Amino acid sequence: MSTHNIWTHKGTFLLAAVGSAVGLGNLWRFPYLAGENGGGAFLLIYAVTLFAVGVPILIAEILLGRSSRRSPIMGMRFLSRTHDTSRAWESIGWLGAASAFIILSFYSVIAGWALHYTWRMITGSLAGADAATIASGFDALLASPALLTLYHTLFIAASGLIVGLGIHRGIENGLRVLMPALLALLLVILAYSAMNGDMRAATHFLFTLQLGDLSLEGWLAAMGQSFFTLSLGMGAIMAYGAYMPGEASLSRTALAIVVIDTAVALIAGLAIFALVFGAGLNPAEGPGLMFVTLPLAFAEMPGGPLVGAVFFILVLGASISSAISMIEPVAAFLVERFDLNRAQAVAMMAIASWALGLLIVFSFNVWADDSPFHELLGLSAFRLLELLTHVLMPLGGLLIALFAGWALTHGEVMKELRTSEGWLHTWRFLVRFVSPAAVAFVFLRAIPQVEG
Ligand code: PHE
Ligand code: NA
Question: Does the entry feature the keyword Transmembrane, yes or no (predicted)?
Answer without folding.
Answer: yes
